[in-house]
Amino acid sequence: MKRRTVLKGTLVGAAAVAMPFVARAQASTKLSFLTWNIADQEALFKDEFADFQRTHKGVEIEWLDKKGPDLPAFYQTQLVAGTAPDVVDLQGAIWVEYAANGALLDLTPYLAKEPDVARLYNPDYLASWRYEGKTYMLPFYIAKTLLYYNKTMFKEAGLAGPPTSFDELIEFSGRMVKGEKSGFLTLNFDWLYWPLFKMNGVDLLTPDLKKPAFNTPTAVAVLDRLAKATQSGAINKIAWTGRWVEPNGAFAGGTVGMLHAHSSSYFFVKGQGPWINRDTLGVAQAPGYWATPTNHGFAISKTSKHPDLAWEFIKLLTGNRWATEFARRRKLLTGTIQADKDGLELIRKEDPLGGEVLQTQLEHTDKFTGNWPLPYDAALKDAFYPEIQNAVLGRKTAQTALADAERAVERVMRRRA
Amino acid sequence: MIWCLLAPSLAIFLAYRVLPLAWNVVLSFEDWSPLHPARWIGWDNYDEMLFDDDVFWQALWNTLLFMASAPIAIAMALGLALLVNADIRGRDVYRTIVFLSYPLMTVAVAIIWRWMFDERVGLINYVARSLGLVDRPIEFLNSFDWALPSVIVANIWQTLGFYMIVLLTGLQSIPPELREAAAIDGAGAVRRFWAITMPLLRPAVFLCFVIGMLNSFTSFDLVYVMTGGGPGRATELLVTYIYKLGFAQTRFDYAAAVTVFFFALLISVTAVANRLSGDDAGAMRAD
Amino acid sequence: MNQGMIGAPPDRPRWRRLLLNRFVLVPGVLALVVALWNVYVGLHDHGRVAGRVADAAGRPVADATVVLWVLDFTTYVETSRTTTGPDGRFVIHDNPSHNIQIGAEKPGVGRSTRIPVRLYFRAEDVTLRDPLVLKGRD
Amino acid sequence: MHRYPRWPIHLALLAISIAMLVPFYWVLKTSVTGENIFSYPPSLIPHAPHPFYYVDVWYYIPFARYFLNSVAVSVLTVAANVTLNAMAGYALTRDFAGRRVVLMLFLSCMMVPFQATIIPAYLITGRLGLLDSYLGLALPQCSTIVCIFVFKASFEAVPSALADAARIDGLSDWGIIWRIMLPLSKAAVATNVILSFIWSWNNFLWPLIVTRSADMQTLPLGLARFLSYQEDTTGALYAFCIMVLAPGILLFLLAQKEFIEGLAAGATKG
To answer: What is the total count of domains within chain C?
Structure first.
């Protein structure tokens, strides 16, 4: 009798201890879904999950959201532990690293099986997720760089419109320098500054992506001019040192002539700059129409136990209905053609200037740069950018900086490729 | 019985310190990432670290500078300790104020100081400018020359109080008779300090020093939030580099090599410091 | 700040030493404050926003349309509207937010500027001190 | 005996105190004034202060929930630290074979940078089935070396006669720790409480990795919400800083006397 109770006790205890495992084992139809710093859209996601569960009875959805810099740390730890989320929202080029190392599911077969799905999306954006001929992600939301300019400061400097060439860009910047005022800012993470080089015909790598190609006289000249402009204050130093808040904030402060950034900047800047309206803020493509995309896409982890379910899930999220809703609520573009058309209409009504900004994101989408599908993009960035900083902040001459950058990049490619 | 008492702590350290360290040691000889199986590659990682990685050396140098700032802080703290050790009214209040910054969350400290150093609205620049010390603002955290010192300042601000308290009690544990006797023998204040106070303070100083070294990785949050290692590599510490290698570049194998090196470095520095402080100092004393 | 249980005179009865020391009192007081605050919130969160609408001359304006905008992520979106009574007063009953804007208009009399209203907690009941003043007839 | 003027000391200390306090003031000021943070010059005294950034913080993140999580984890950590460290500290005051080895082990454990141990630590926690649980959050910090030495020091200060007498009365080691050592080491306890509280309260990287579900997040993770894109959360960010720091500071002010004593004991005699 007594022994039995004891036995029971121990069993219960054991069960309690083992519970987490059991729980994980039982959740046979659970989709875990990891997003990249977009916790503010909880309401939307809840609606979307409900919609999904209506058609897929008894599917439990676990939603996780992590801040940008933290997400890779989290996702990789989960990979090691074999508990990677089924669906993950990835930004920039990090997906290539995961794809190349076999962490992500190749979506090409699914797209082949359902040809009309691919037709939903802007082909250029969809194409930016192709690696070795395979597509790994569907567009969640999209953005590429453009040129914002402060019309008031342009008038003061007697400038008619936005620059149409690198020379003009530098020259205009110089003309707007006065006291606290400077001429130009760019965001610098994720190669967002690369259009400045590309518009001068400078390429980072050879077309086969095997060797660095940036250490040319032209590049030296470009970098040198950027450095000189920075020293003279025509280009605000924050362009090379700030990440997100600093450059956008500085532009919102109304003392910087131009901001080279992607569409998300608009809302941040508008939030902080009371001066901003259609007469004071100009929106244009960067010279040469070159732009660096920073897109968010949905990938499926290869370790997912329910790849088909996950596919259904991201199809729903990126489909017209919810993409439109998302575009409207978050005021951005999703890469889903119809959704962006409708969403843009709605946004134009509420906020014409915002509409203008987003319009640029759908034009010249054939002129992407700075989005090389390389498995070691992060290492490359880390090797290359500090040298650029050295040059523009006057630490090294453009020549030595690029030479050192070349060595660093070659090292990465030698070690990683 | 003794071991039963030690068991829980030992178990925790085993699980969260020793095993991970061992893991790093093994990994440092492998080619591995969360995404593909491990392959033994011998000394390659170390070879790359020592002979083919400028960033590593830069980070190492910065880390050493960071550690070297500990003595400065300790010296300041010692001065403070002497001040608050004087029998004056309200010294408890002073102690509390100076110590107040130690318990703060490092991430928050970083944010606070990013704010203090800010170019436009940072207090430091504002004061400097209104006093006419500088004509245009210094972008502390964005300049190669200022970034590391700025981070160090923030670090000192946070740890100063801790050092002070440790040294303060060191002072108080010195029997006053000694000093008085010396005074009677006609030793001046300065001489008394060097002949009597300092030697007896050794253990406390040593402990401060050890803590100071540990700072070089406990202040990961500080650097990570304040500068993220930039501009360029100006504030890259070994810890931030390890973190970046692992989680930004998915190179845990290589990061492991750096970790092992870092660990060895810390141990040896501690051992040396221990020798210097007369072998039986502070926490190291075995009896 | 340094007086307290530790170093307290031992002659005091045990229960007082255990209860009447700063480690118990301070958290206790805090808990009390929080509790009271929650009671207050509970009694005042019906989402009532009351106010008056007047014209440029300060006369109350009857059946003017009053609109409530609520901050949604980055922009304010209209959530509800009502009309003023004969005495120019209005009451909105369904404000869900703590960060809102109120504006009024009446064809022929004009429109008021949107006044931002910040509340101490969601759906706090408030009565606007100044009336919404309609200007520029359209 | 020796008289010296007090005022220079007061002057110096006053200056230092101000220097130490200014950053607090600056952040406090920013958290209550919404002045355009990109305009120069900043105002030294806050004009039109208002508490609404704090209201924003409260609603930006499920503050209460995160707060409770942080508290739960911290309480766990503190309790564990006091008991385990007391046990270990006591053991280290006794003589036994391999004592020096243990000491060396502990000391070298201090030298392992946590950032490098995340992955194995995570795997181990997973093996224990403690992922995404309070215990899993607390475990790595349930015993901390510095605190062990604090206990060791203050136990050594207890006259050994007491312990011996107790042992003769047939009191077990366990009994000695609880009945004799701890009551005589209030300062050390306070130190343990505060240090372990601070460390667990401020922990950022570990919770980031081990928590999955939204309602297991701790306060430091809430910070992420304020570095978000698109919104201007600057004012709220500093309000949040204050709100996160307040508990730690409060606790410290409450127990600072004992804390400082205990820390000191551990420091010098350890």
So the answer is: 2
